[in-house]
Amino acid sequence: MDSVGIASTFVAQSQAQTSQALQSEMLKMSVQQDANLVALLQEGAENLQAAQAAPAPGLGTQVDVTV
Description:
- This protein has 1 helix and no strands.
- The chain is mainly alpha-helical.
- The longest helix has 51 residues, at 3-53.
């Protein structure tokens, strides 16, 4: 193998490693974004349950039907 072949192989390997590193980093970022979205949805669901479970003071717990 001549020096040009060795250099070409080295460049190809470096590009492959860089590509894999970038793909890995983008996958990590995607997973983090998904985790943030899930956390946001869970928080919203918890807030909704809390709002439905206990109405604000003075609202909806008793109805005066006397005339």
